[in-house]
Specification:
- The complex is a heterodimer of chains A (about 280) and B (about 350).
- Chain A is about 20% helix and about 30% strand.
- Chain A is built from seven helices and 15 strands.
- Chain A has helices at about 35-40, 80-85, 125-135, 160-170, 195-200, 215-225, 270-275; strands at about 10-15, 25-30, 45-50, 55-60, 70-75, 95-100, 115-120, 145-150, 175-180, 190, 205-210, 235-240, 255, 260, 265-270.
- Chain B has two domains: about 5-50 and about 90-205, no CATH class; about 215-345, no CATH class.
- Helices cover about 30% and strands about 20% of the residues of chain B.
- With about 350 residues, chain B is of the alpha+beta class.
- Chains A and B meet through β6 and β13 of A and β4, α3, α7, β11 and β12 of B.
């Protein structure tokens, strides 16, 4: 019988320090058994449990796109026991990943629509996955205009710099990267995400917004979108809660009757409006 | 399917027969308490109220090792977790009460949900044939009828046993139960009218049941936001005893332990009464105080589970938490308060 608790063994193929405070590192994993890569078939927005033998597991959004073959990427913030341990691991160390878990962004039902993608801080990970996937030549024609708003406190806290700088030069995605306060040699925007969103958000007709960021950003961005005319079912968010099993069994990540791990983490604002605010 | 009768002096032979090639599990006295455990036919008794802790321990042990790994690079698969299996044994349990069998069937739908199957639970749950023992006389703490069950309920059972005038009556419920009884070489008997009158009497003996159906009709947010949760939670110590003895509480934690040679990943029972249960890495906690945690327990049992399981409640009225709560929080009075259209008025 398939055991959803048993991680696929992976090798750390590369570790990249992402931010100037060194609190975020991106881990590139390769499956020890190439067959496991096929079993780990995922879509943007899903997450996995990163499993360090003897230390424990952490649920982390998948930062790579399914179109990037041969490896998977996870960007990990140093917070607790497992993530701190991972920050001391080295290339070629063996660990595990378990998943994919949760539901992806509903990219299939969003075909034909314009997409407004809003990210704050290091919550950009699964949205990186989404954008890489959307920009693939076979996927890009299925969607309308794509607008990407991404904010962090300082330039040194922005992830995936080479990538969004490259997207900024393309003409099939509008990129608005912003930092909180002005600094020398910064050639992009200055200001908070809600303010930038207000300025650049496309008309709500036939447009969906994907938002992932810290609670404070969501709190102030949501009214901007509602004022602009976005309906609750066109605002799509990804939740986080403490998790263990990731399978809707261990009982801690529920928001009312829904489990963030099994029924989410992606919910529309319309769905969240029907649920208690326990997240 | 016909009923069968086991005459009083033939109980041991019957148990011998159904436990052939299987482990026999039955309630056994442990000090002044009783617990379902491995036993032999001569030690089985029908003279017990109910087990101290629910029989969930059979399928969901308090601590369970799930997988292990070793660290020696000269051996195969260093630092790769290997499954330790479900450790299921073919068994028959005799004497599980209808409330517990129903409670475990609720948990079964969580462990085998719409997306995932928990192999450790499934292996154990499905390798045990469940022979239930109906409750002819209700115990003081019982309220299965109010929760939508019956002292003669058959949900989650393969066979229902009940004390008959002629001995022990047996009613097969599932095909597996029918096969078990057919192979035991028993005397067939038509006990349906006796069973029916016994059940009616046992239901009546629980008194007029409380009506909790308004909970099903009240809106989720309306119930959740009711200001009375604070006063309901006021006495609670968050000790968690209610969650440990409950037949439907199934929450667990997963922990790793290691030494210089290797390690194991295990799961342990956990409780929603704990602050640590939900706290985020950032320090944010969606259920920061006992009010949210007490609300979670009762909402989960009486609203969330019914929403997900076609109206079946996550409380089956076994009464353990009512008896054991150190501050006398009674799920019946909480359910009644939740049933009141405006809980504020009842304060």
């Amino acid at each position: 019988m398939f055991n959803p608790y048993l991680p696929y063994p992976v090798r750390i193929a590369e570790i990249r320090v992402e931010t100037e405070d060194k609190n975020l590192r991106t881990f590139k994993f390769e499956f020890l058994d190439p067959d496991d890569e096929n079993k780990f078939a995922y879509m943007p927005g899903q997450f996995a449990e990163l499993s360090v033998p003897g230390q424990g597991e952490i649920p982390i959004g998948i930062a790579s796109s399914p179109s990037e073959k041969g490896h998977v990427l996870f960007t990990v913030n140093r917070v607790g026991q497992v993530s701190s341990y991972m920050h001391n691991m080295k290339k070629d160390d063996i660990m595990g990943i378990r998943g994919p878990l949760g539901h992806p962004y509903p990219l299939d039902t969003l075909q034909g629509k314009n997409l407004l993608i809003i990210a704050g801080g290091f919550a950009v990970t699964t949205l990186r996955s989404t954008i890489i996937w959307l920009l693939e030549p076979e996927n890009r024609p299925n969607y309308g205009k794509i607008t990407f708003v991404y904010g962090a406190r300082t330039p040194g806290l922005l992830l995936y710099k080479d990538e969004w700088m490259a997207w900024d030069k393309r003409d099939d995605i509008d990129v608005f990267v912003t930092i909180d306060r002005e600094v020398p040699d910064w050639n992009y925007r200055v200001g908070f995400v809600p303010a930038v969103t207000k300025e650049v958000c496309p008309a709500p007709e036939n447009t969906a917004a994907l938002i992932c960021g810290p609670p404070i950003m969501i709190k102030f961005t949501q009214p901007v979108l509602e004022e602009a005319g976005y309906t609750p079912d066109s605002i799509i968010m990804s939740l986080e809660n403490r998790m263990k099993c990731g399978l809707g069994i261990c009982g801690r990540c529920n928001v009312g009757p829904e489990y963030v791990c099994k029924d989410g983490p992606v919910f529309t604002l319309a769905q969240l409006n029907q649920l208690p605010k326990e997240y | 399917m016909p009923e069968y009768i086991v005459e009083e002096n033939a109980l041991k032979d019957f148990l011998q027969s159904i436990s052939k090639g299987r482990v026999l599990l039955s309630p056994q006295g442990v000090g002044d308490k009783c617990q379902i455990t491995e036993t032999t036919p001569d030690k089985v008794t029908l003279n017990f109220t109910n087990t101290h802790i629910s029989p969930k321990t059979l399928f969901f042990p308090q601590t369970e090792w799930l997988m292990s790994f070793q660290k020696d690079h000269s051996k195969p698969h260093p630092y790769v977790y290997q499954d330790l299996g479900d450790k299921a044994k073919s068994a028959v349990v005799f004497g599980i009460r209808p409330c517990d069998a129903k409670g475990l069937s609720v948990s079964n739908k969580v462990f085998q949900n719409d997306r995932f199957t928990d192999p450790y639970w499934k292996g154990k749950y499905e390798s045990v044939i469940k022979v239930g023992l109906a409750c002819k006389d209700p115990f003081p703490q019982c309220f299965c009828v109010a929760m939508g069950g019956s002292p003669y309920g058959a949900t989650g059972l393969d066979v229902l046993a009940f004390p008959s005038e002629k001995g022990l009556g047996l009613k097969p419920i599932t095909d597996e139960g029918a096969k078990l009884l057919a192979e035991a070489n028993l005397k067939e008997a038509d006990l349906s009218s006796e069973l029916k009158s016994q059940e009616e009497a046992a239901i009546k003996a629980q008194g007029i049941p409380d009506d909790y159906s308004p909970i099903d009709h009240r809106g989720l947010l309306n119930l959740f936001q009711d200001p009375q949760w604070q006063s309901i939670a006021e006495n609670c110590l968050n000790c968690g005893v209610c969650t440990f003895i409950c037949p439907t509480c199934h929450c667990f934690d997963i922990q790793d332990e290691e030494n210089s040679e290797g390690g194991v990943r295990m799961r342990n029972w956990d409780t929603c009464m704990s602050w640590l249960f939900t706290v985020h890495g950032t320090g944010h906690n969606p259920r920061p105080s006992k009010t949210e945690r007490v609300r979670q327990r009762f909402m989960h049992k009486l609203k969330y589970i019914p929403m997900k399981q076609n109206g079946d409640r996550g409380c089956t009225g076994c009464g353990r938490c009512v008896v054991l709560c150190p501050v006398n929080i009674d799920i019946r009075s909480v359910a009644l308060r939740m049933s009141t259209l405006n809980m504020q008025k009842q304060a």
